[in-house]
Structure formats: structure tokens, C-alpha cells
Write a structure and sequence with these properties.
By secondary structure, this protein is an all-alpha fold. Helix content is 74%, strand content 0%. Helix 4 runs antiparallel to helix 10, helix 7 packs antiparallel against helix 11 and helix 8 runs antiparallel to helix 10. It is globular. The termini are far apart. 39% of the residues are buried.
Length: 242
């Protein structure tokens, strides 16, 4: 039994009962983060998180971003080998986005007063690195079209968190625009990427490469691993309080 066919239920004519738009709507409804799922962003929003906790966020991202970029490049290559050009384009765009985001981390680290030596010496938290570890697992083991849905379901919440962080770092912490550019990048609407995600899903659906139950399970796990990221940072912020 191949990974593509495992666990799929198809109608007798071999065509799926769902569309790509159906899947996106279902994922948005089922994977909406619960209130309070992110305990860290509110601490930054009200200015009670110390600068050290914000620095930890930036330092963790210094490891998350390159790891995710390599995972997306691997998914792009797998999609290309499987003759899934829309999927390959989507993952290539994600990888390019991670590169652009990485270029914006230096200004954030500088605003947090993190030296190059401190960056090298920083010890990451397991809870913060669980998310990119699972993305790497998906890159190796997931069906590419399933991974498209799992990742896309997580984008809206991540973008909203980044918008809140960008605003709070300006108003509460006095960070300049260039220090907030990392979060501005992810908070900005990305209609081209949305279109690529839809095209990749449509390609997967038409080729029988999407298993909704599996994709939604993967999306749920990604959401829970991201929750671990924010909870680990919130614990760090609480430990710094007098």
C-alpha cells in the first residue's frame, strides 16, 4: 500500500467528494485556535513581557526559519519529482519567504540587544523547536498535498499573532520599524501565496493525493506544536518577572 493510497475513501467512480475550497473552509473551521491558546503574545501586547523574553522569541526563530526553509525546499523537490508543479511552486514560494524573513531577523536581534556571541551561545528550548521538527517530519513523510492543507490552516493564526507583535513592539517597547519588519512580513496579506495554495490543493484533489482526515490531523498537530512554542516563551517571560 502506498502513502498516496493509504486510508483514502473514494467514491466508486474514483473522484473525491470534496473540492479544494471545501477543504480550506473545513480546515479554517476545525483548526481555529482556542481562546487563550497563545499565552505569550498577550504579554507582549500589554508590555509585561521583558525584553529578554522578546529576545528569546527572536533567537528561537533564528533556528526555526532555516529549518523550515530546508523542509519546504525538500517538499518542493518531492512535488516536482511527483509531477505536481503547483505543489512545487507553493513550497518553493514558502522557502523563498523563509529566506526573506531570515534577512529581517538581524534588526530584531539588535533591538533586543543580543550580541553575536549571545546568539551563538543561546540554548534553544525543546518546546520551541518541536514545531520545525514536525515540519521536517512532514517534509520526509507527508503526502505533499496533505501538507499544503495542514500548513495553510495554520497561516491565518500565525499572521494575526505577528500583526499583534509588530504593533506592540512599536508602541510598548519603542522598537523601530526595521526591528519589526520580521513580524510585518508575516502579518502582511499574501494573495499570491493564497492562490498558489489553492492551486496546489486543487492539483492534489484532482490527482487523488489528498486525504482530508490525515491532512487535518497534521494541521492539528502543527497547531499544538505551535502552542508549545508560545507556551515555552510565556514560561520564560514569567520566570523573568520580579
Amino acid at each position: 500500500m502506498t502513502p498516496t493510497s493509504r486510508g483514502r475513501r473514494e467514491p466508486s467512480d474514483g473522484r473525491p467528494h470534496f473540492t479544494a475550497q471545501d477543504l480550506l473552509a473545513r480546515a479554517a473551521a476545525e483548526l481555529l485556535p482556542a481562546p487563550g491558546a497563545n499565552p505569550f503574545v498577550p504579554l507582549v501586547a500589554d508590555g509585561t513581557a521583558g525584553r529578554g523574553a522578546v529576545a528569546a522569541l527572536a533567537l528561537e526563530q533564528c533556528r526555526v526559519i532555516p529549518a523550515d526553509r530546508r523542509s519546504f525546499l525538500h517538499l518542493a523537490a518531492r512535488s516536482a519529482r511527483a509531477d505536481l508543479p503547483a505543489g512545487a511552486a507553493f513550497f518553493a514560494s514558502l522557502a523563498e519567504g523563509e529566506k526573506l524573513a531570515a534577512d529581517r531577523l538581524g534588526a530584531l536581534l539588535a533591538a533586543c540587544r543580543v550580541s553575536a556571541e549571545q546568539e551563538r551561545a543561546y540554548e534553544p528550548r525543546a518546546g520551541c523547536q518541536a514545531y520545525p521538527a514536525y515540519v521536517a517530519w512532514l517534509a520526509l513523510n507527508g503526502e505533499p498535498a496533505d501538507v499544503v492543507l495542514a500548513l495553510t490552516a495554520n497561516f491565518a493564526a500565525w499572521g494575526g499573532y505577528c500583526a499583534t507583535l509588530a504593533g506592540a513592539l512599536r508602541t510598548r517597547y519603542g522598537f523601530p520599524d526595521e526591528a519589526c519588519a520580521f513580524f510585518d512580513f508575516f502579518a502582511a496579506p499574501a494573495p499570491d501565496l493564497d492562490r498558489e495554495a489553492l492551486a496546489a490543493l486543487e492539483e492534489g484533489v484532482s490527482g487523488g493525493g489528498v486525504t482530508p482526515r490525515t491532512a487535518l490531523r497534521q494541521g492539528r498537530l502543527l497547531q499544538e506544536y505551535e502552542g508549545m512554542f508560545w507556551t515555552s516563551l510565556a514560561e520564560r517571560a514569567d520566570a523573568e518577572r520580579p
